[in-house]
Amino acid sequence: MAYFTFPSADLTKRPVSRSHFFSTDHKVIGRQYFFLSLAAVLVGAWLSLLMRIHLVWPNLTLPLVGEIKPENYLAQLTMHGTLMVFFVLSTVPQSGFGTFFLPLQLGASNMAFPRLTATGFWTALLSFFVLMAAFFVPGGASGAGWTQYPPLSALASAGPGQGLGTDLWLVSIGLFCLSSLMSAVGFVVTTLRHRAPGMTWLRMPLTCWSWFVTSILILLAFGILLAAVISLMLDRHAGTSFFIPGGLLVSGKVIDHAGGSPLMWQHLFWFFGHPEVYIAVLPAMGVTSHLLSVFARKPVFGYKAMVGATLAIGALGFMVWGHHMFVSGMNPYAGFAFSTLTTAIAVPSAIKTFNWVATLYRGKIRYATPLLFSAGFVSLFITGGLTGPILAQPALDIYLHDTYFVVAHFHLIMAMAGLFAIFSATYFWFPKMFGRMMDENLGRLHFWITLLGAYATFMPMHLLGIAGHPRRYSELTGVQYVTAMAPLQKFVTVAAIVTLVGQLIFLLNLFWSIRKGAAAEANPWGCGTLEWTLASPAPLKGFVERQIQVNHGPYEYNIAGAEKDFIMQDAPAS
Amino acid sequence: MSTAMRLALLVVVVGCAYLFLAHPYWFPAGASATSDSIDRQFRIAFWVFGALFVLGHLVLIYVLSKRPHADGKIPSGSWRLEITWTLAITVIFFWFNISGEHLWSRMMPAEREAGQIEIEVTGAQFQWYFRYPGADGVFGRTDAQKFAKPSEGNPLGIDPGDPAGRDDILATAMVVPVGRDIQLHLRAQDVVHSLFIPAMRFKQDTVPGMEIHSHFTPTQIGNYEIACAELCGMGHYRMRALVRVVSKDDFEKWIKAQEAAASR
């Protein structure tokens, strides 16, 4: 078993204080990603609060914030989207929990390339600082949206924030691509090569399957985005014309470019951007499958169907990007293909939903906070998912595209469902990560507010979209029929404020529990996967000095004749 | 806790159902030849997927209320069930998909009919321009980089040397006759914009470097707002214009008056 020991294992002998910083230990890096995402989500949520307040009370000047001009609003929405999509939804479920728990669940002593994994984190942190710096440069942060469509994003003269702010955005995202690629290589190789003896493919927890498939998506998708942002950077500063066509006149200035295609950016961006949705949501699905089984004290219903659905979503995820482009000027014939392929990807998503519900059926359900958030995930996934086949039809998408209907759809299915999985994973794995339990009462209170708040915030947005309210409007006064929707926008803002304030309960619980929470046992939830064979918090040495032999599947709950209501994966074969 | 969870989900279902049935905001009245069939397709979607939403949550509430089997039997899967529900949902999704594809093909006819009204639409930060080809039926050549002078009434840069451009009519509202097929040539001068006419159920991006053809047929006389639906910069939220749908006679009169003004 020589390959279970890594050079990095030496680091575990260092004092904890030093190894907690520049460490190549996956547990340290996983926690570092966790706190990076926490910082990003705080900024992102703060920005959404500012935007919601500005939309409905445009004349209100907040202390420390000052007047919000249209360009400030656009910078806020761009940064909100970028932070949430890249630094929260694609970071903490995969690089955060994945880096911490993939090796532990597979029985490996570390990630396959510890230094590469560590470099990945430090690159992500750098990328985060570069992005934040954009707030402080002349012109402010980019205002072209997280999708950065050229020529708006390609020309400094197209608006404030389109100068240095956009350069920093591109550099930041380029670094983030590199970071994700470095991290993903470790995931793939760890899964392929460093599973403990007996950890066959079909004994892997569904979390590991999700992290594995997601890391393949990252390897295929982020390379494309990296190429795209480099090309855009060259268009801006090296005189190339990948995305800038001839004949442009911007703010009265002649643009000296010719031959580029704005649509090419959209194709490249969404070829990355749609798999990106699954990069965010597949780990969330894995966590949900895992936790529903643990807390229903039942095996995952249809484990093999779940694995198959994960693989199908991963493969189909690369064939549906054109559904973001039905109104872009793409050939209408392409609409037929992308519509049908998008409908096809709804099928494995539905299979997962059926199996989650069946996993809960007749279980001995323990209503702990992680279960509440996982059940909430299923609810939000149903709600957000069912508008997918509607938006997949060009005939209907023509009207709904770029309205609040789309905002409602992706916030429910990606942002809220993703967030619920992040919360459930945090409450669930907190003892293994920090050695203490989070407070259950605060956890439940947090759940009720967040569930009802998420619905109250995002459901009414469907109606705004149906009534034709375009997204990314900084004021409601420019178009009359939009002005008429101010009352419902007010309701949404109030709901958003209540929901955001409710998140303070989570922060309080998190930081209080890190210091003062009740000490956690090794296996407080009675879970059968390998990370729970270690003490809480997971000792730095992990599985370095232990031989593991896996004899059981990951979800053996309430097996007849067993001693307890679960069987550890490394328990002796019966 | 089980009761609280089921109650919360019930509140969600009832709340959402109430919101959508009361729907304080909804589609504006349709005013184009395709708006009825699009609205019908959306109504089907609303009822089918609305029913799946309610059903899905009722099933979720139901499974949360079921106690374990008394005999301790624990099911871990059933291929029969997997195949049944996969086929069922596939049939629903693809039936809906195919009906949508039919509608899409009716909306996007491959052949252009003759005798349509031709209008060129140009998006520029943060203004829409509508150009009619005039009596000769031909749009004059444009070169925004060379000739565009908004202050001199030539924001699109129509080439003064091109005779076809002399009778072109430029307007800041889209005036169209009721009942005629309107063929749009969509262009953009600087960044990507999107021409969104909610009442016509019409939306099409205007992309620099491309001329995109699209069409609609207005069926109701009246004024309808145009909004920009693709983020185009600071003034995106106020890039508004009007479609004025008028009778055939009024349209002829308007065109005549514009031609007279243009030739002066």
Mean pLDDT, all residues of chain A: 94
Radius of gyration of chain B: 26 Å
| N→C terminal distance of chain A | 24 Å
- Treating each run of at least 4 consecutive H or I residues as one helix, how many helices of chain A? 17
N- to C-terminal separation of chain B?
A: 80 Å
Any overview of this molecule?
The complex is a heterodimer of chains A (574) and B (264). Chain A is built from 17 helices and 2 strands. Chain A has helices at 16-19, 26-56, 70-89, 91-106, 114-133, 164-193, 206-237, 262-296, 303-316, 332-360, 369-385, 388-391, 394-400, 404-434, 440-466, 480-483, 486-516, and strands spanning 249-250, 253-254. Chain A has a two-stranded antiparallel ribbon with strand order 1-2. Chain A is globular. The relative contact order of chain A is 0.10. By secondary structure, chain B is α+β, with helices and mostly antiparallel strands. Chain B has helices at 2-22, 35-65, 79-107, 144-147, 248-263; strands at 117-124, 127-132, 169-171, 174-177, 182-188, 193-197, 202-206, 212-216, 222-228, 241-246. Chain B has a 5-stranded mixed beta sheet. In chain B, strand 1 and strand 2 form a beta hairpin. In chain B, helix 1 (2-22) packs antiparallel against helix 2. The model of chain B has no long low-confidence stretch (mean pLDDT 93). Chains A and B meet through helix 3, strand 1, helix 9, helix 10 and helix 11 of A and helix 1, helix 2, helix 3, strand 7 and strand 9 of B.
Structure summarized in a few sentences:
The complex is a heterodimer of chains A (574) and B (264). Chain A has helices at residues 16-19, 26-56, 70-89, 91-106, 114-133, 164-193, 206-237, 262-296, 303-316, 332-360, 369-385, 388-391, 394-400, 404-434, 440-466, 480-483, 486-516, and strands at 249-250, 253-254.
